[in-house]
């Protein structure tokens, strides 16, 4: 009898301890939730959907009140989470953020939060504090849920992040963002592009292969475009003698540009800033422009006349950034300046003779830009060699999303949410997304000037 009493006492103690532990961990509520779902026939998929809708609503309540852009669900992030969260270790949240930004490189900043509970309603309450502390820059979110403890509890992972827009001249014009997502047209490396609003012209350089794959500039109205799109196909009305050779047509056009375009620096341009660009028509109407304006004017006219011509952007000696025109005619390459003295037809401006101080970085015509095939390679005066230059079409930039091999710096933000289940990361270092600044002729450079002829708008 005594032995039975002892046995029943032990069993009662075990059951009591198990009950207390289950109550502490919320398993009692979980069992009740499971029983309720079984009794009422509630669909768990419906519950998941309602949980996500309620979560998004809570995240956006404060944003709407503060007139901020609402957070949207990102299908790409959602799909990645659905695939990876079921087997993901959640001990280190910083590792999770690194995994996200490696898999989805267009995410510039990421905040991650996880919670575990017996019901989805209790999970939602746990995310309340996290919901109130999302940064205004965050634009998208993803959410995933998995079962634990044999299905008696639920664990949720919520990710909110700043999903960068794809880089394009139009987006750069319309938006005021300082970072965009892009992909190198040479090596397909995905990366972040940082821009400076003080610069009216900039080149996109890949941090992986170090080659430039696009160059953009703003026009007089503040509209950005790829630089090759400044070559609009314009040519001023002109009549050439039928017996005039192609070489003398070349010299005639070059002289006409010299005679109708006074070199001038854009007014109001700061010393450390680049200026706005002009189309050929604007340059002819104004009768003035700086080096890239007159080079575009000259190249546009030559292209319309059927010449194989390109605008070159690079350096001239020790004077800094410059722009000029190169032409290939009958296997000879000519270098045409639009800001210095008029060319002497009896002394052809061959690249081999006058090009020693000119070092181009980028060439472009109407349809493409040409980037150095090997960055940093010694310049050998070869403007049209396919071995020296790689042709790329900036308009072929398309939005994609593939893994980026480089890592990301980790920054933690103070928050009242349990630090063990929250992590934040960002990529603010501009060195990871360099851009090339295209400078104009320095103020102390030699300036070519000539009175504007009466027929070209003089008084």
How would you portray this structure in words?
With 459 residues, the protein is of the alpha+beta class. It folds into two domains: 30-163, 3-Layer(aba) Sandwich (Pathogenesis-related Protein p14a); 219-398 and 441-456, C8orf32 fold (Roll). The protein has helices spanning 2-25, 27-40, 44-65, 75-84, 93-103, 120-126, 128-131, 169-174, 246-259, 280-286, 291-304, 351-354, and strands at 72-73, 107-117, 140-148, 153-163, 179-183, 190-194, 201-205, 212-218, 224-226, 262-263, 288-289, 308-316, 321-329, 332-336, 358-364, 369-372, 389-392, 422-426, 435-437. The strands form five sheets. It has a six-stranded antiparallel sheet. Strands 1-3-4-2-18 form a five-stranded mixed sheet, with helices on both faces. A hairpin with a 4-residue loop joins strand 15 (358-364) and strand 16 (369-372). Helix 9 runs antiparallel to helix 11 and helix 10 crosses helix 11. The protein is elongated, with a radius of gyration of 32 Å. The N and C termini lie far apart (126 Å).
Task: Describe the protein's topology.
Blueprint: H1 2-25, H2 27-40, H3 44-65, E1 72-73, H4 75-84, H5 93-103, E2 107-117, H6 120-126, H7 128-131, E3 140-148, E4 153-163, H8 169-174, E5 179-183, E6 190-194, E7 201-205, E8 212-218, E9 224-226, H9 246-259, E10 262-263, H10 280-286, E11 288-289, H11 291-304, E12 308-316, E13 321-329, E14 332-336, H12 351-354, E15 358-364, E16 369-372, E17 389-392, E18 422-426, E19 435-437
Parallel strand pairs: 1-3, 10-11
Antiparallel strand pairs: 2-4, 2-18, 3-4, 5-6, 7-8, 7-19, 8-9, 12-13, 12-15, 13-14, 15-16, 16-17
Helix pairs in contact: 9-11, 10-11
